[in-house]
Structure formats: C-alpha cells, structure tokens
Amino acid sequence: MSNIKMNIGIIIGTTREGRVGPQVGQWVKEIAVLRKDANYELLDIKEFKLPLLGESTDKTGVEKWNQRLMDFDGFVFVTGEYNHSIPASLKNALDSAKEPWNNKAAGIVSYGSVGGARAAEHLRGILGELQIADVRTHVALSMFTDFENWSTFKPQSLHLSNLNEMLDQLLVWSKALKSIR
Ligand SMILES: Cc1cc2nc3c(=O)[nH]c(=O)nc-3n(C[C@H](O)[C@H](O)[C@H](O)COP(=O)(O)O)c2cc1C
User: Fold this and answer.
1) Ligand 1 center to residue 2 CA distance, Å?
2) How distant, in Å, are the alpha carbons of 39, 67, 69, 140, 141 from that of 81?
3) Is residue 111 scored above 80 in pLDDT?
4) Is the CB of 155 under 6 A from ligand 1?
5) Is residue 32, in this structure, part of any structural domain at all?
6) Model confidence pLDDT, tens digit, residues 154-180
7) Which residue range forms the structural domain that includes residue 14?
8) For site-directed labelling of 131, which of 95, 124, 165, 169 has its Cα 20 to 30 A away?
C-alpha cells in the first residue's frame, strides 16, 4: 500500500473573469510535481460549467465533476476570499458531489487581504460535513505581499516550506484514508 502513488487534485476554486486562482494553482502544481511523490493534477471548476445546484435538467457537468473527483485520493483547495468566506463557485462545486468527497484528505491554499484566512476557516467547517479530513498546515497568501497590483502572483519564498509541509501531511492522510474506502 505504502508504495502506491496517491492521486492529488489541485482544485481551483474561483471562476470569475480575471481571476488569479489559476496562477496560484499552477504554482502549487509546479512545486508539487518536483517532489515526485504523488500524481498531481489541476482541476479547474470553471471547465465543468457546473450549474447552481438543482437549477438545470442537464446533468452532464455534474456527472463529469463527480466522475473526475472519483479519480483522486486527496485534494488541495486553492481558494480566494469573497466576503469573508469561500467563493460561491467553490461552495457550489462542493455541494455538487457527496460520496466522491468522503473519506479523503485535503490541504488548503488561500489568498486574500489577510491570507484568505476567513475563507479557509469556513472551508474547514464545510469539509468536515463532507468527511474530508483537512490537514493542519495551511498556505495563506497575501494580496498585498504575494501579488503585484492584486493581479500578478509573485509569492514570497517563505511559503515554499509551508506548502511542502502541507503536502507531506496531505499524502500521509490520503494514504491512511484510502485504506478505509
Ligand atoms: C465578490 C468579492 C468579494 C471579496 N471579498 C473579499 C474579502 O472579504 N476579503 C478579502 O481578503 N478579499 C476579498 N476580495 C478580494 C479577493 O481576495 C481578490 O479579488 C482575489 O483576487 C479573488 O480571487 P480570484 O482573483 O481568484 O477571483 C473579494 C473579491 C470579490 C470579487
């Protein structure tokens, strides 16, 4: 079991035009793949064109989303902070699946004026209900010091060790939880 490589999905939580989320997701992926300890893939919620839960009779996007989530043992949630919480796009994507989330692990990378801390803490409450075990270490990026003009991502080097520590914890819990699924 211990030699099996975990599959980790890096979920980009924002979908608005002009979002910075993809830059942050790409940074997470680039650092993660260098570790060679798991399969890391980007999962962009925007690509699934998820309708607001229950509003469409076309289930194609929701089915694809659920199917895709089944491929992963753990997740990194990359989230901005909207009105002191997670963006509606991420909440809707979380609500749009159930079993594919259960008994998996997650780490959080957030960004905002105070590191997206309020969004990250709200996210932890939601993850508990979905039976996703979120690891302690959290990467909190500042819109003031990790971005230029709130638009170009230039992370300070201090975040590197935190990101790797978060991934270390995520892999251990992803492996542990695979044994009960
Ligand atoms: C609707 C909305 C609400 C926001 N509310 C907050 C907030 O409460 N706290 C915060 O730190 N930043 C807030 N911001 C600023 C975001 O942190 C910033 O725009 C960030 O780039 C959003 O992520 P995105 O570019 O990936 O969409 C808000 C932005 C939007 C669009």
Assistant:
1) 39
2) 27, 27, 23, 11, 11
3) yes
4) no
5) yes
6) 999 999 999 999 999 999 999 999 999
7) 7-178
8) 165
What per-residue confidence (pLDDT) applies to 3? 76
* Closest residue by CA, ligand 1 atom 27: 19
Question: Does the C-beta of 146 come closer than 6 Å to ligand 1?
Answer: no
- Looking at the domain assignment, is residue 98 inside a domain? yes
- Residue 85 in domain: yes
Angle (CA) 9 153 105, round 5°? 20
Amino acid, single-letter form, for residue 67: Q
68 is a domain residue: yes
Looking at the structure of the chain, the number of domains it has is 1
167: domain CATH number is 3.40.50.360
What pLDDT shows up at residue 120?
A: 98
**Protein residue with its CA nearest to atom 1 in ligand 1:** 82
Q: Is residue 1 predicted with pLDDT exceeding 90?
A: no
Is the torsion defined by CA of 155, 160, 162, 163 positive or negative? positive
Question: What does pTM read for this prediction?
Answer: 0.98
